[in-house]
Specification:
It is built from six helices and seven strands; from the N terminus they run αβαβαββαβαββα. It is α/β, with parallel strands linked by helices. The chain binds flavin mononucleotide (FMN).
């Protein structure tokens, strides 16, 4: 009677794990700058973080009020999250950009980013406003803006989780 491992799966898995850990160790952190003023927006932010933490990438989650240029300069990619208020991004996210724009301008060109917006009924003004600023910064949108529009539904959280997962995976794989 002979005994054999079921294929090479155990060794293959170990190799993959070491490779991922190595990539993650070399990659810069994923910065998540999320304004979350309500239970629903906290859910969206937490879903993004949950998706991102499926990778081995370091994840830096901050309120826009607590984020500054140093966090951006250290980041390998950024996810921006905001509510739409009065047809524009939240004052919190705008404040972050106001404080960070010139300190980042020469240093972060090409930085990969993605945006999600929680909007009661629109979201387009926020996307336009963020696009104007990130175009000035020469950041690189690597995902279509995700607009969670209208009455809150469970699927918003799933979409946010996917966004976090995708951004972290891209960073971990060295795509960004
Ligand atoms: C002062 C104020 C202004 C708002 N302006 C807009 C707006 O211009 N466009 C929009 O789609 N939603 C608007 N909203 C809705 C918010 O985006 C929404 O309530 C917020 O994202 C929180 O989502 P939640 O109610 O699911 O927690 C506004 C809300 C407030 C309180």
């Amino acid at each position: 009677m002979s005994f054999a491992w079921p294929g090479k799966a155990p060794f293959y898995s170990i190799d993959l794990g070491v490779g991922r850990a190595k990539n993650a160790a070399m990659a810069k952190p994923l910065l998540i700058v999320a304004f979350a003023p309500s239970p629903n927006t906290v859910r969206l932010r937490d879903a993004v973080v949950e998706g991102a933490r499926e990778s081995e990438i370091e994840v830096n989650v901050r309120s826009p009020f607590d984020t500054g240029p140093a966090d951006v300069l250290a980041a390998g990619a950024v996810i921006l999250g905001t509510t739409e208020n009065l047809g524009y991004m939240s004052g919190a996210l705008k404040d972050f950009f106001d404080r960070s724009y010139y300190a980042c301008l020469e240093e972060t060109q090409g930085l990969a980013y993605a945006l999600y917006v929680r909007a009661g009924h629109d979201g387009t003004g926020t996307c336009r406003g963020v696009k104007t600023i990130t175009t000035g910064l020469r950041w690189r949108a690597v995902h279509e803006p995700l607009i969670c529009r209208g009455d809150f539904v469970e699927n918003f959280a799933a979409q946010c989780r996917d966004l976090g997962r995708l951004m972290a995976a891209g960073l971990e794989a060295g795509i960004f």
